[in-house]
Queue: 2 jobs
Job 1
Amino acid sequence: MLVIVAPGQGAQTPGFLTPWLDLPGVADRLSAWSEIVRLDLIAYGTTADADEIRDTAVAQPLLVAAALAAAETLGLSLSADGKGATPDLLAGHSVGELAAGALAGVLTPEEALGLVRERGQAMARAAAVTRTGMTAVLGGTDVLESIDKHGLTPANINGAGQIVAGGTLEQLATFKEEPPARARLIPLQVAGAFHTSHMAPAVDDLRAAAAELTPRDPRIKVLSNRDGTVVESGADFVARLIDQVSNPVRWDLCMETMASLGVTRMIELLPGGTLTGLAKRGLRGVETVALKTPDDLEAAKELVK
């Protein structure tokens, strides 16, 4: 069984799109999508520095567009007819859920990009209210208890010994001074405490934007970050995606579902590496390919066969 996954915010790095522009059709796709998101996706993906692409309003559209462009080069269908290579299962981490939803046919690529534009802007506005951030916690004991003690939220429970804490910069600084035993802390390059109560103001804005859409039921099984379940209704998928903005991402439960369904192969769309890294520790024995450069396409296409 093949699952294709789309990464979330923080996976972007300066210049990651550069080698992909040499592939037929990629530059044209990104140029057209730039009009939808009202950003120069090619410039942000090639010449922008780390600070520029850390901006939530930039990072989120950039990541969804990159994932969809890479999916198309892999032979997956971006059209309503569903013609093209078809995985058995789809999932996205945080904003990656929008890419997964588009590949599942819940939204068109254009609808997904329009919605992610609103999502990024709404979350950027929410992040500007209070100085917040996120820190990855690797390993350790009594991690959830320690996060709660410091008034933080376990914003991403990723499995494989990784939990991401979100909260104010002051709370994170105190957490750093008194970390969980035997844990390694890594501050993340993000602009706010996503998937925490700090993002609540963005939920209503996103719900209003989504009200203009008519989601379709998935034509490919797609998982929800809320609880790792397979979502059968397009309307439910979008509603969950909106609520997820201010609630924790349960990637651990998504991986549990992948295991229970018998996943044996995983491809992580551009910019890949994060989710396949988790899979190597949390889904042992599953064959993985992370799309980082076009050189990875051959190995990925072997998994699609």
Job 2
Amino acid sequence: MSSAHIRILIVKLSSLGDVLHNLPLVWDLREHLPEAQIDWVVEEAYLDLLEPLRSRNGLRGIDRIIPIALRRWRNNIFSLKTWQEFFAFRKHLQAQTYDVVIETQGLLKSALVCAMTKKTSTTVVAGLANATEYSGYEPIARRFYTQAVQVPRQCHAVDRSRWVMSAAFDWPLLNRQQQPPYFYPQAWVEGLISATQNSISQNYVVFFHATAREAKRWPNKNWITLGQGLAEQGLQIILPWGSAAEKLTSELIAKEIDGAVVPTAFSIKEAFAVVVGAQLTIGVDTGLTHLAAVLARPTIELYCDSPKWKTEGYWSEAICNLGDLKNPPAAKTVLAVAERLLKASQSALSKQAIDAS
């Protein structure tokens, strides 16, 4: 079958960081199969992560983004509207017949999406054959694949997705050094940076202190020490939050740092502008920190109770990964690295200004 006639479905429903680390598949597929149809099923909450990759204006990325609302439907299982939306989703999904389905989540919910997909007798449905350490996995999902792909027990999230994709097409595994992952179109990122930085007047650093699992948090006293050190250098500290409890923590930290700001809640779409406008983003192992990293913005990722190898940003010198499983970094270490990244960023901007003059 020629590239122009191959129809591919990517199934990666959630969560924020997992979807981000799956983005390189789109560009890996485009490099090998430039004319293929590539569609993606994703939870409705994460649509904005995929929108910049949508095929339009001469860019060939994702042809069809298919939203699903499993999280919302679960909370309203007996609602007529829920079932109407589910059947509308299924109709949307089955409007196309796929030749290859790539499922990189390894959960029953994503495997069931594969089962609902319209396929031919030769369709390849590739998914994970085994769990990787510190990641969710449900062995029953294997029953829904035609090709269960064995991956290393310790495997970076980007590499794991590439492993499944490569097996689905019988391609050699991509080498991360020779073919580093590509996330968002460079022209789109540059346009976003330009538009955002033209509209801000204060140099600021973003602290993403919150995460779903308490053990992955960095102590408040460390955030305060770090914030005070950066504030002394004329930087404003921004402390986002996603829940009432997280907002309270942001306020407690902000009280101890001169000029620190606790913003109003913002969407994922607005988060793009927040991180690209920042001089630096510092955060624990959580989705919004990974957003800054995949945009290749100056980022420090803090690992306190999760292994660095699983999600560390390895594709840009602007990213620094500190700490590791059960080995959180010291505040003074983070401050020293922050100062180094800020200095490097300022040097790069000065060089750009000289080159442009």
